[in-house]
Here is the input.
Amino acid sequence: MPEPTAPPAPEFALSARALTRRFGDFTAVDGIDLELRRGEIFGFLGPNGAGKTTTIRILCGILTPTSGTAHVLGYDVARDPEAVKRRIGYVSQQFGLYGDLSVDENVRFYADIYGATDRAYREHLLEHYGFKDKRRRLAGALSGGFKQRLALVCALTHKPKLVFLDEPTAGVDPVTRKELWDLFYSLTADGTTLFVTTHYMEEAERCDRVAFIFRGKLVLNDAPDKVKAHLGERDLFHVRCRYDPELVRRARELPGVETVNQFGTTLRLIVERGRLTPETLARALGNGELTAAHVYPTEPTMEDVFVNLTSRLAAEAEAQDAALDAAASRGLA
Amino acid sequence: MKLGYVAVVRKEFTHIRREPRMLSFIFMGPLLFLLLFGYALRLTLENVPMAVWNEDPKSVLSLQIEDRLASTGYFRLHKVDGVEQLERELVDGRARAGIHIPADLSAKLFDGERATVTMYVDGTMPAIATATRGEGGVLGGDELSAQLHFDPPDAPPRKLAKRPLIVEEKVLFNPELRDQNFFLPGVIGLLIMQVALVLTSTALVREREYKTFEQLIVTPVSGAGLILGKITPYALIAILDAVLVVSVAHFWFQVPIAGSVALLALLVVLFVAGVLSLGMVLSSYAETQQQAMFYAVFVLIPSLLLSGFVFPIEAMPKGLQPLPHFLPLTYFVSSVRGIMLKGAGLDVLGRDFVALGCFTLLFVGLSIRRFRKTL
Here is the structure.
């Protein structure tokens, strides 16, 4: 197959326009627009089943979009998926390592598959990622953190300019996660773009930009510190109290309360702006012990935003579905 | 009751129920076997094809010989022309027995002399050869002997020997009727099949079980690259295995290699390729290594029973005789016996070779397509 002539280096490592993928009646990805600048760490978030995996599969060239276009490193994923596959790196939550192969053998296998010829770079990677004295170790015998590092090395031998990291630190302890993120940052220093999916908010905050996908649609796409603004016209209250199911139930039923979330000995409430004050809230929840002194207004975290966004959107979608169902049954009658 | 016994039993039954394919194997398998042994598989032959080269075709006496053979019900006679054609038919399997009636048969018998007929027996399968020789005994039997006494009314007292026919018996290919010569060539095929199928059928599933498959599909590896790359090492192993088995069969068990060793090698390579690619197809359908092994066994056992390895295909009911032709082992068994015992060449085996080649292409194509589909 002749090598397609490389298009001029585009401004964006990845750009997608109205990307859509349907499976029968189900629209898994619904008109997504994305732009990843070179060297950026892009966090892709969303609940399970929201369309994250489908989006990544399209962007990796293993699933064709139903409509819309996506260019990855300048190549059209639908027209030239092989060119895309050759140029990207991919590390999944499952880590495609062969447990009965040694560190060296795993790296060599993936390097050969990608046709990576730069042996010096391979050596450099192994050293930089801490495999100097572990190269003969079987991959299956490595600790979780080192398995992830090895997966990363395997995905990097061909010097990809864009790397997809699909929940790269799932099930990893915080210290190892920090070490992995140090490695991610060192990658971006070389101009590599990272596309990261995660369920960890603390990890999302490490990204340059985060996007949130819900039911196949992008509902938010911004820098982490600006995400909080997306809470919109809402107040956030922090109530100091032990978990009490009765209290939570009562809180949920208060007018204007959208999200109730218990963290240890604090209850976080997201409320429509101006509907409640600490005093009215304390009184409404009132079990006698609770006073306004236990209630503080507070700043939203990213988790607050996402949990609130998800539940609001789910409620809206449900209302919409119900309306459609009602319309349909009226139509039938 | 030990703690948890009931819980484990219930859970196992749930696992079994969740795999309907496995369940159908568990119950269909035994039934299939019973049906095969009950209806299809026989060790004894009827209608053994016998090539008749009658050089004295106008003589009533020669026709009496043919009639007598046909009336046993054991032989199905057809005419051939010349000893070359007769022997060729024995090599390619169109005939399992043959008889040559000489031109001077009636002349000799009229003169009161004894005449010699030659009976050819394919010794490849000793059990059939022995039965064939037994049935051929009618040639020297009382009934035929009586019929062949040509007694004109004014004949002088008979000076003829009691038995007018001298039956010369030629057992071809396996004259000592050694069972090893019959079994071992087929065993080569069976062993190749066992090793190759088990090795490859688990090869793709293993990737799936270890979750490395997902990683592979996002790499630039091509379907052909993956499938052929997976087949090649096992092909080498299976070929080495075949060399080992053929050597032991030949040097230790004295199974002859009457034909060309190069042709035998070509046959082995073709067969290995076919079986390995079949293994890949099975592997692409299986979800677990356990399932893949199960599939492999379910190809192996019908192959063992239906390929003619033990039970002659001609002995199966007519309706089932096409069945063996869907099994690669059938072509291997007939070819390997052809080469090792009968010294058959490509002229005779060409069709078997082509069939094996077609299987390989079909299975490789199918497994590459299956791989693409799983993307």
